[in-house]
Design brief:
The complex is a heterodimer of chains A (445) and B (209).
Chain A lengths: L1 H6 L2 H14 L8 H19 L16 H4 L5 H6 L1 H15 L13 H7 L4 E4 L2 E2 L6 E2 L10 H6 L1 H13 L18 H7 L6 H33 L8 E2 L3 H9 L1 H11 L1 H26 L3 E6 L9 H21 L3 E6 L7 H4 L8 E4 L4 H8 L4 E4 L3 H6 L2 H14 L6 E2 L11 H14 L4
Parallel strand pairs in A: 1-2, 4-5, 5-6, 6-7, 7-8, 8-9
Antiparallel strand pairs in A: 1-3
Chain B lengths: L1 H9 L3 H13 L4 H20 L5 H18 L14 E6 L7 H12 L3 E4 L6 H11 L3 E5 L4 H15 L7 E5 L5 H7 L3 E2 L3 H11 L3
Parallel strand pairs in B: 1-2, 1-3, 3-4, 4-5
The chains are: A alpha/beta (445), B alpha/beta (209).
């Protein structure tokens, strides 16, 4: 069986992953209609992405992080601490709005786990920001400018003994561990264990176990919801996740400012590090897609947007490893789902290098006319419904906007109706307008 | 020689620029003159940014070099630089939002373009905006926000400014990732800018400069 997989072409692998997704293993459908809707939704998205034939209609993504809960008056704080309340709002959302796909509430995560580990990379509702705010990244240098060699030499060791202790207060003692590859024969075993006998390291391990117990309770609720959503006939729009290698460095490790200075002061180190970590994220995406049985790999894009760097910098620092990530995932039959906030007008030409049907892009403020012109025959695009219009506009305005998107970007297929961003708040009339109007007007005849 | 620092700093040649500053200081030159050159260089950086020749990394880098120059020069200053300013602007990221990259760039661009900027930081409550307008007498207020929740915070802040009787005293501009004309209407701001150069243009227009 395994050998057979290895011998498959990328197209065959992708087809096989779509079939797995379509088969909805373990799902108990509420009715034959629910099963039919589920399958129609998967095929609709597949047709939109592969661009071999026109889908039955424009697929609709309703991207939200805290949005679904907000519509039912549930505060972000409660979403992160009261899983049952979050799940109940998420379920009501599916019943009331009937979206084509659901976004997993797993994206919100558990505040309790973050508390236990004393997470420092983010502030979250009620922890450093208001209970009504969404979680937000704290800019900082979580890897120092002189640590590129350590990262490149052994990323896993760097994560374990340098990065984790910095971003989790409770894991600070992991700096005391002996490097794992140091363990090679009987003479080393006893000595290698010494750090595990010290109270600080043991406390760190206890914190990990406590966080793990909480994760088990949390995922049970999430899984319950996901199976129920599928049973209602609604598949998910995400199977796994990965990140552009540049953003791993610029968000997660060096911070925006640190990374921008590194592009001037140590460009060769930056390039080496980018190349070193790229395969790690191909592996992450493929691994997650395989275990979830869904080929869509979500990749949020950040620091390569228009204005964030020059074309020369994009070409040198951002694009090569993003392209390698996309192609690496596609070669394994996954479908990268590029979530592209801000605008990408000056980058669209690069996207023409991507093979037909290999991925899809949800745009925020990118010029959709231009995007359709350049990518209309090869790459599925989506998005562009402004969050400002959803939150402060009228249903009529939204319908007119969606009509234009369907006419222009949706022409002949290869378009997904969606907001340009993952929303934290919602307004019932405008969201209904986007979904209901597209279901009606977005049908391909 | 004076021309060299302006050009090297504007071209973002870090080591060279710092060397020139060292040399000029040890030659006993008036530190104010060095700062004046640095200021002219940063004006060129701002111009190149507005012409899309420079991007955010270039601004960040120029700011970093400037900081090092200021650190070298400051101890030698005997009198404070009496910079002529175009006017005062209050800037902050509104309540509930802690994003600062965009806000910092606006502050930087206003500053290098000659405005006196009062940077209130992030997650700024409405009252703090009101207080700062009263205290500084600023005629222009800039509100930044990346999250959609900033829409409501901006509206609330503008409402608070109105309640304090200051709405007719100030012009208000807003900006951030999800801000557009529609959101401007919702919040009651006077204008929205899609990037830092627009903030400069708006402020200049309002202050008649």
């Amino acid at each position: 069986m395994e050998k057979k997989w290895e011998r498959m072409s990328a197209d065959e692998k992708r087809e096989s992953r779509f079939q797995t997704w379509l088969s909805a293993q373990g799902v108990q459908f509420q009715s034959p209609q629910a099963e039919a809707s589920y399958k129609a939704a998967v095929l609709r998205l597949k047709d939109a992405i592969l661009m071999k034939k026109t889908p039955d209609r424009v697929p609709i993504f309703v991207l939200g992080t805290f949005l679904q809960a907000h519509l039912y008056g549930v505060k972000p704080r409660d979403c992160m601490y009261d899983y049952a309340t979050l799940i109940s709002a998420s379920k009501k959302f599916l019943e009331d709005y009937k979206p084509d796909y659901y976004g997993s509430p797993a994206f919100i995560g558990s505040g309790r786990i973050l508390d236990t580990l004393d997470y420092r990379l983010y502030r979250w509702p009620g922890h450093g920001i208001s209970e009504n705010s969404a979680y937000q990244y704290v800019e900082g240098e979580y890897m120092r400018a002189d640590e590129y060699t350590a990262l490149i030499d052994d990323p896993t060791d760097f994560w374990l003994r340098t990065y984790l202790p910095r971003v989790f207060g409770a894991l600070e003692p992991l700096t005391k561990l002996t490097p794992f590859p140091n363990l090679w024969e009987i003479v080393g075993v006893s000595g290698w264990m010494i750090p595990f006998g010290t109270p600080p390291v043991q406390n760190a391990l206890k914190a990990l176990m406590e966080a793990g117990n909480e994760a088990a309770a949390w995922i049970q609720q999430i899984r319950g919801f996901e199976m129920e959503a599928r049973g209602m006939g609604i598949p998910t729009n995400t199977g796994g996740a990965a990140k552009a290698p540049f953003d791993i460095l610029a968000d997660t490790l060096r911070g925006t400012r640190g990374m921008m200075l590194d592009m001037y002061r140590q460009p060769d180190m930056v390039l080496k590090a980018l190349e070193r970590i790229t395969p790690l994220y191909v592996k992450q995406g493929v691994g997650m897609a395989a275990s979830s049985g869904n080929p869509l790999v979500f990749i949020p894009l950040h620091k390569g947007a228009d204005g964030f760097m020059s074309d020369e910098q994009f070409k040198k620092f951002y694009w090569p490893t993003l392209k390698a990530l996309i192609l690496g995932l596609a070669a394994e039959g996954c479908v990268p789902y590029l979530f592209c906030e801000g605008s990408y007008n000056t980058r669209l030409e690069y996207l023409t290098e991507l093979p037909k049907g290999s991925c899809f892009w949800i745009f925020d403020r990118t010029d959709m006319v231009e995007a359709k012109k350049l990518l209309g025959k090869t790459i599925c695009i989506g998005g562009n419904v402004p969050s400002g219009m959803i939150l402060t506009g009228t249903a009529e305005q939204v319908k007119a906007y969606c009509k234009n998107l369907i006419d222009v970007a949706g022409k002949g297929g290869g378009y997904i109706m969606s907001f340009g961003t993952s929303m934290d708040e919602g307004k019932p009339d405008t969201i209904h307008a986007m979904i209901d109007f597209t279901k009606e007007y977005g049908v391909y005849k | 020689m004076a021309k060299d620092l302006v050009k090297t700093l504007a071209d973002l040649k870090e080591e060279e620029a710092l060397q020139i500053v060292e040399d000029r200081l040890s030659a006993g030159e008036d530190p104010l003159k060095i700062l004046d050159d640095a200021k002219r260089a940063l004006e060129i950086v701002g111009k190149r940014f507005s012409d899309c020749e420079y991007f955010i990394p270039d601004l960040v880098y120029s700011g970093e070099i400037l900081k090092q120059i200021t650190d070298k020069v400051k101890p030698k200053l005997t009198k404070a630089a009496a910079a002529k300013r175009l006017g005062k602007v209050v800037v902050g990221t509104v309540a509930g939002d802690i994003h600062d990259i965009g806000k910092d760039i606006v502050v930087f661009m206003l500053d290098v373009n000659g405005f006196e900027v009062f940077d209130l930081g992030i997650d700024v409550p409405a009252e703090k905006f009101v207080e700062s307008i009263k205290k500084t007498g600023s005629k222009v207020v800039g509100m930044s926000g990346f999250l959609t929740l900033a829409f409501q915070s901006m509206k609330d802040t503008i409402e608070a400014i109105k309640k304090a009787g200051l709405r007719n005293e100030v012009k208000i501009m807003i900006g951030g990732g999800q801000i557009d004309e529609q959101v401007k209407g919702f919040t009651g701001a006077d204008a929205y800018g899609k990037d830092a150069m627009e903030a400069v243009k708006l402020a200049k227009g309002w202050l008649g400069r």
